[in-house]
Amino acid sequence: MNAATKEHEEHIGDLIHCFYSEVFPCYFDDEQIQKFEQLQILSMEGLRYNGTMKEAFQLISALQSLLTVIECIEHHGIQEGYHHLFARNVQLLGKFGISFPFTIDQFRKKRRRIFSMYSRPQNDWVM
């Protein structure tokens, strides 16, 4: 068995951060996102993970697949195979103790105005 590298584990953290900074603000308001943090949604706290490379790649691919499905929904609507892909990757995250209690329908329509303390800043300039 090969152990996951530090970079793999950092990438998992980066993908989780991507949900909080780029995906969730598009679909949920700040109060809801705060609640997600309190409920430890996408938290690595209760992670059932042995640190193997295989498991790291499974986590990375599950998170990336969910990001891709959500992005595809934005451009093409919910297509036939998306339900299965979404559910399979949510189940895989659950196997590792990572909670993602959303349905695909919650990502059907973006909010009109996105103004969130969770969003990444548009630039690095400080005024």
Q: Gist?
A:
This protein has four helices and no strands. The chain has helices at residues 6-27, 30-38, 53-76, 82-95.
Description:
With 127 residues, the chain is mainly α. 54% of the residues lie in helices and 0% in strands. It contains 4 helices and no strands. It has helices at residues 6-27, 30-38, 53-76, 82-95. Helix 3 (53-76) packs antiparallel against helix 4 (82-95). The chain is globular, with a radius of gyration of 15 Å. The mean pLDDT is 88.
Topology:
Elements: H1 6-27, H2 30-38, H3 53-76, H4 82-95
Number of separate helices: 4
What ranges have pLDDT less than 50 throughout 5 or more consecutive residues? none
Please tally the β strands and state the result.
0
Q: Kindly report the oligomeric state of this protein.
A: single chain
User: End-to-end distance, in Å?
Assistant: 51 Å
Integer average pLDDT: 88
Radius of gyration: 15 Å
Task: Please describe the biggest sheet, giving its number of strands, its sense, and whether it closes into a barrel.
Answer: none
Helix content: 40-55%
Element string (H = helix, E = strand): HHHH
Overall geometric form: globular
Structural class per helix/strand content?
A: mainly alpha
Strand content: under 5%
